[in-house]
Amino acid sequence: MKNTVTLKFLNPTWIQLRNSEDQIIFSKLMNKNTEYSYSLLDDLYLTAGNAGNIIVSIDGETRGKVGKIGEVIESLIIDSKFDN
Fold first, then answer.
1. Theoretical Cys-Cys bridge with 67: which of 44, 47, 54, 71, CB 3.0 to 4.6 Å?
2. Is the CB of residue 75 less than 8 Å from the CB of residue 45?
């Protein structure tokens, strides 16, 4: 699928995704080695409790981790230029 963001979780990590109207689309403690995918076109804001546990892939190409181990991120938009 084109324009797909996939988040892979290396360890249990809480995430929340909100839309541009600040409505919660997804909020869950993700388990180790699970994945969650959504469309880049949705422009969702990602908040996570441990950014170093999340690997981002776009259209199957690994782009890196969202942040450092233990780092809390708030309202990050992952766009097509994401590269870490």
1. 71
2. yes
Specify the DSSP class assigned to residue 10.
S
Q: For residue 32, what is the DSSP state?
A: T
Euclidean distance between CA atoms 68 and 84, whole angstroms: 10
Question: 31 CB contacts (<8 Å, ≥6 apart)?
Answer: 9, 12
**C-alpha count within 13 angstroms, C-beta hemisphere, residue 54:** 26
Helix, strand, coil percentages in the chain from 3-state DSSP, rounded to 5 = 5, 50, 40
Note the pLDDT of residue 1. Answer: 67
Quote the CA–CA distance of 70 and 60 in Å, as a whole number. 25
Summarised one tens digit per residue, pLDDT across range 24-74 is 999 999 999 999 999 999 889 999 999 999 999 999 999 999 999 999 999
SS3 of residue 53 by DSSP? helix
